Amino acid sequence: MKLWGGRFSKSTDKSVDDFNSSIRFDSRMYAQDIRGSQAHAKMLGKQGIIPKEDADLIVKTLGEILADIECGKVEFTIDAEDIHMNIETILISRIGDVGKRLHTGRSRNDQVALDGKLYLRDEAEELFAMLIDLQKTILNLAENNLDTIMPGYTHLQKAQPITFSHHIMAYFEMFSRDLSRLADWKKRMNIMPLGSGALAGTTYPLDRDFVAKELEFSDITKNSIDGVSDRDFVCEMAFVLSMIMVHLSRFSEEIILWSSNEFGFVTLDDAYSTGSSIMPQKKNPDIAELARGKSGRVFGSLMGLLTMLKGLPLAYNKDMQEDKEQIFDALDTVKMCLPVFCGMLKTMTINKSAMEKGAKGGFTNATDVADYLVKKGLPFRDAHAVVGKMVAFCLDTDKFIEELSMAEFKDFSPLFDEDIYDAISLETCVNQRKIIGGPAAETMKKIITDYKKSL
Ligand code: ARG
Questions:
Q1: Probe residue for ligand 1, chosen from 7, 318, 326 as the CB with the greatest number of ligand atoms within 8 Å
Q2: Is ligand 1 within 6 A of the CB of residue 112?
Q3: CB of 22 shorter than 6 A to ligand 1
Q4: Residues 6 or more apart whose Cβ sits within 8 Å of residue 328
Q5: pLDDT given at position 361
Q6: Distance, CA 53 to ligand 1 centroid (Å)?
Q7: Which tens digit of pLDDT belongs to each residue from 115-171?
Q8: How far apart are CA 4 and CA 82, in angstroms?
Q9: What percent of the chain clears pLDDT 70, i.e. is strictly above it?
C-alpha cells in the first residue's frame, strides 16, 4: 500500500504510477532529503514530540541508508513515487514503527521545498568553483597578452586598436557578475521552509530555528503558504545559469570567428577540436559551437519554469514537480560547459602577429588622428571631418594613414607635424589609453594584479 493509501479502495493504475512518479529524476536529491530528515528528526526528539531514542534511531538509520545508497545497495521504486517516500519507505522497512514517526509535523510539500533549496545550494558551490577556475584561466591569458595588439570591433567592423588582454578581461567582468549574482541568489534563497507543513503550518511545537541552524540556513520562512509555493529560487537559479550561458555563448562566437582562416587570431589545440568525416583538412571548433548551442536549452529551462509557475493558485500544486528536470538539465549543461570551455582556453594558441596585422588594417587609428588635431586646437567635429577626408583619400590611393607623407598630411591640415607618426602608431593608440577601463598595458597590469589578489 502507498504511504498515503488509507482512504483509497483501489491501488493506482500502472500508467498513473509511471506518470505521477518523479523518482527517475528526483533520486539525485537523496543526500539532501536525508540531511533534511535527520535535522527534522533530531528536532522532534529534542522537543519531546517523539521519544529521544526514536529520534536517535531514525538519525542513525538514515545515515546507514545514505551509505547504502552511495555504494549502490539501494534500489528505488516507482511505487514509492518520489525520493521522499522512497527513503521513508526504506526507513520504515528497516526500523518499523519508529520510522513511521519521522513524518510528524511535516508534509512532503515543505519537505520538497527544503530538498530543492539544499540541492541547489550544494550545486551552487560547484558553480562558484568552476566560475573561479574560468576566471583564473582568463587572468592568465590576459597577463601574458598585455602587449598583444588586436583590432577592437563595433558592428563587427574594425574600430580601434585594443589588446587581447583588454578584450578577454571583458569576459572576466561578465563572470564576476555571474559570481555576484550567484552569491546574491544564495542570500535570498537561504531561508528554511520546514514547519510550513502542507500549507498551514502545524500544531506541533517545532523548533524551526534549530532546524535552520542545523542545515545552515540564515533564517526561517515567515508565511507557510509561501513557504511551500515559492519556486522563485529555482527560476532565479535558471536565470543565473542562463546569463552564464549568454556569456559563454558570446565568448564561443568570438572563438569560432577568431579560429577561422579569415581571422586566424587563435589556433585551437588538437585536443579541443574535431575533424570532418569527409573533408580531410577540417579542424572544427566544436567545443565553442556546442557551448553556444547549448545556451538554447538552458534558456528553455528558464522559460519552462516561469510558464509552469505563472498560473498556479496557492499553495502546492503537482505542476511544481516539473521544476526538477528543467533546473537539473540547466545545471548539468552549465556544469558540463564550464570546465571543457576552460580547457579549450588554456590550450589555445594566440597568434599575436595575425592580431596585430588585423589591427593595422581598417584605419583603427583614425580616431587618434582626429584627437591629435583636437590637441592642436581644432574642435572635434572639424577634426572628424578632416580625418574622414583623409580616410577617403587613403582608400582611393590604397594607403594607411600612417603611410602618408608629411606634405600629404599638411594638405589636409597645417596643424600636422612630424610628431603625428608617433602619435598614431598602434602602440601609442593603445598605451595612451591609460584611463581606468582602457587597454593601456600599465592600466591592465594594475587591474589584473588587483583581481589576482582578490581571487
Ligand atoms: N514529488 C513531489 C514534487 O516534486 C513532492 C511533493 C509532493 N506533494 C504532494 N502533495 N503530492 O513536487
A1: 318
A2: yes
A3: yes
A4: 25, 28
A5: 84
A6: 29
A7: 999 999 999 999 999 999 999 999 999 999 999 999 999 999 999 999 999 999 999
A8: 13
A9: 100
> Distance of CA 15 to CAs 3, 20, 77, 79, Å?
19, 8, 14, 11
CA 328 to chain centroid: 13
Residue nearest to atom 12 of ligand 1 (CA): 321
Active site positions, annotated: 155, 276
Task: Tell me the residue type at 229.
Answer: S
pLDDT exceeds cutoff 90 at 7:
no
pLDDT at 207 over 80: yes
- Look up residue 96 and give its three cell numbers: 518499523
The C-alpha atoms of residue 115 and residue 34 are separated, in whole angstroms, by 9
431 lines ligand 1 (CB under 6 A): no
> Which of 321, 324, 326, 327 to probe ligand 1 with, by most ligand atoms within 8 A of CB?
321
Following DSSP, what letter does each residue of 178-197 receive, concatenated?
HHHHHHHHHHHH-EE-TT-T
pLDDT, tens only, 373-386? 999 999 999 999 99
pLDDT digits (tens, 9 = 90+) for 55-85: 999 999 999 999 999 999 999 999 999 999 9
Please determine, for residue 1, whether its predicted confidence score (pLDDT) is greater than 80.
no
Q: Using the mean position of ligand 1's atoms as its centre, give its distance from the Cα of residue 312 in Å.
A: 14
Q: Per the structure block, which three cell numbers stand in for 106? A: 511535516
Q: How many A from CA of 211 to the centre of ligand 1?
A: 21
In order of their start, the domains of the chain are: 18-104 (1.10.275.10), 109-357 (1.20.200.10), 359-443 (1.10.40.30)
CA separation for the pair 346, 60 (Å, rounded): 46
Tell how far the Cα of 88 is from the centroid of ligand 1, in angstroms.
Answer: 14
Residue 120 cell numbers, joined:
541547489
Confidence of residue 222 (pLDDT cuts 50, 70, 90): very high
Alpha helix segments (H runs only) across 71-163: 83-95, 108-143
User: Is the Cβ atom of 182 under 6 angstroms away from ligand 1?
Assistant: no
pTM, whole model, 2 decimals? 0.95
The Cα 259–Cα 265 span in angstroms is 6
SS3 69: helix
Task: Please say whether the beta carbons of 126 and 333 come within 8 A.
Answer: no
